[in-house]
Design goal:
This protein is of the alpha+beta class and 334 residues long. Helix content is 24%, strand content 27%.
Length: 334
């Protein structure tokens, strides 16, 4: 699992630039008896055919990042943020473009250290160019970048950029590789553009029209000093979502997931997230409505260059979700 997580987080893939992530996943599934296709938006849909009920598992491939919008006469790049960027997290951060070009984010205000509120409008990317003529040989308007990959192995704890949501992708990839019992019709969907509006999940769910949808994503924790109140801790198991800003999960789904966690003998944590949402928010409103839940990987320092997850939570998520998708959900009224 560590090798997979490192490989996935090393890839530069901001919203709309997910193809390298999809390509890696496809290489890992080569030779498996699976139906694999890419839809118009770029969602990678991996199907394990079955004659039973349709189960859609969704994990988004995209990460937050930057898009170049202006190159000034001195060769500095102004950028538009892609997804939810916290300005104080990115000052002096190294970035890498999908082309391989690297740079550093600077800020023009010399007094920024004394300000509580920062703005990306005052920031720029320095790629080492002496002037605009030199810069445009290296980058162009619309080019995408993200934080430069840096992976730290701390034993059971791992740190990298883009754990949100390459952690979820790693879980789905591991499941897709395994032998799954039962007759459910399972769709492993690696979605695009979640960070900018849950877009890929909307179209893929419409096409699949599942009987049960499950988003696999990350969630915040409440276990670091002076943090927000939240009953989720690193290492205490994957979470079963109850509510976030985009969904209040149907009680039937929550109870079913709790039963499956117990069947799998996996510790879980109930999750109420007061900010943010996941692909579940759009899946559950597809067509006439879809029974949808979410299973999350507890993650510290989300939307930073050093997101931290616990490997035990990842492995337990795989075990937990495998139990769900092997269950005869038709007999449970789905």
């Amino acid at each position: 699992m560590k090798k997979t997580i490192k490989a996935l987080t090393d890839i530069i893939g901001p919203s709309s630039g997910e193809k390298p992530v999809a390509d890696y996943i496809k290489t890992q599934l080569k030779g498996k008896k699976l139906e694999i296709k890419t839809d118009i938006l770029g969602n990678l849909i991996v199907r394990r055919p079955g004659k039973g009920k349709k189960i859609m598992l969704a994990a988004h491939m995209d990460e937050i990042g930057f898009m170049i919008k202006h190159i000034d006469k001195n060769g500095f790049l102004r950028f538009s943020v892609v997804g939810g960027i916290y300005p104080h997290n990115i000052v002096n951060t190294r970035v890498k473009f999908m082309s391989g070009i690297e740079g550093v984010i600077g800020i023009e205000d010399k007094e920024y250290k004394y300000k509580e509120v920062l703005s990306t409008a005052k920031m720029f990317i320095d790629i080492g160019a002496k002037n605009k003529k030199e810069a445009i040989k290296m980058v162009k308007i619309g080019d995408l970048a993200s934080v430069k990959p840096s992976f730290s192995d701390m034993g059971n704890r791992l740190s990298a950029k883009a754990m949100d949501n390459r952690a979820g992708c790693a879980v789905l990839l591991e499941l897709a590789k395994q032998t799954i019992k039962g007759n459910n019709d399972i769709y492993f969907v690696f979605t695009v553009q979640e960070e900018v509006g849950l877009r890929g999940a909307k179209t893929s769910a419409f096409a699949i029209n599942p009987d049960l949808g499950i988003a696999v994503d990350v969630t915040s924790t409440g276990d670091t000093p002076e943090t927000g109140i939240m009953d989720v801790s690193l290492g205490n198991g994957p979470t079963i979502k109850i509510k976030d800003r985009g969904i209040i999960v149907n009680k039937k789904v929550v109870v079913f997931m709790e039963q499956m966690a117990k069947k799998a003998k996996v510790s879980y944590q109930p999750e109420i997230l007061e900010w943010g949402s996941t692909d579940a928010a759009t899946i559950h409103m597809t067509k006439a409505g879809v029974l949808t839940g979410a299973i999350s990987i507890p993650t510290r320092y989300i939307h930073s260059c050093s997101e931290v997850i616990d490997l035990n939570d990842m492995n337990n998520a795989v075990k937990f979700i495998k139990t769900i998708i092997e269950e005869n959900i038709a007999k449970r009224g789905f």
